[in-house]
Amino acid sequence: MSRVGKAPITIPDDVKVEVVNNLVTATGPKGQLAVQVHPNLQIEVENNAITVKRPDDSKTFRSLHGLSRTLVNNIVEGVKNGFEKRLEIIGVGYRAEMKGNKLLLSLGYSHQIMFEPPDQIQFAVEGNTNIIVRGISKELVGQVAAKIRSFKKPEPYKGKGIRYAGEVVRKKAGKTAA
Fold first, then answer.
1. What is the pLDDT of residues 81-106, one digit of tens each?
2. Which end of the chain is more exposed for a tag (fewer CB within 10 A), N or C?
3. Residues 65-86, buried b or exposed e (16+ Cβ, 10 A)?
4. CB-CB contact of 145 with 75 (8 Å)
């Protein structure tokens, strides 16, 4: 039995969950999210808990069991608290600033990068070098943070670029003069 899959998901008081044809919809104080679960898996909502059950122990359903439970848990958590990813900008002259709801990045290129957030995503900038990506969808927050990081990935010699907060970049030794 999947350890992740068999764990029940507790529903907070201010979150409402509905299941119709294995489409799980969660509505909470931050918004509404939905996820489609495989039609052969059973989703049961009873006394403020959601359980995901699989029909048999075949490899397909074993792999989908924990995944489906985690996806349902992420939408419940997202509409209750939301998610955030923090990014750090390392490098002389590299900085970020907000222009309305858009993010303006100066990353050493000949031009500045203006990045507009998708719906349900908000940006915040702390001290010109820290970017916070917030939203209710864990998947979308991670995708947007990865997109911002892709504008200037950390390079291995000086470590300059955009990295996740707490990410360790292994530095390489440079050339040595002979």
1. 999 999 999 999 999 999 999 999 99
2. C
3. bbbbbebbbbbbbbbbebbebe
4. no
pTM score, whole prediction: 0.88
Q: Nearest-CA neighbor of 95 among 152, 141, 135? A: 152
The first and second tokens of residue 159, run together, are 């470590």
Report all structural domains of the chain as residue ranges with CATH numbers, in order of start.
Answer: 9-80 (3.90.930.12), 83-164 (3.90.930.12)
Q: Return mean pLDDT, the chain.
A: 92
Distance CA 124, CA 98 (A): 7
- To which residue do tokens 């222009």 refer? 99
Tell me the CA end-to-end span of the chain in Å, nearest whole number.
61
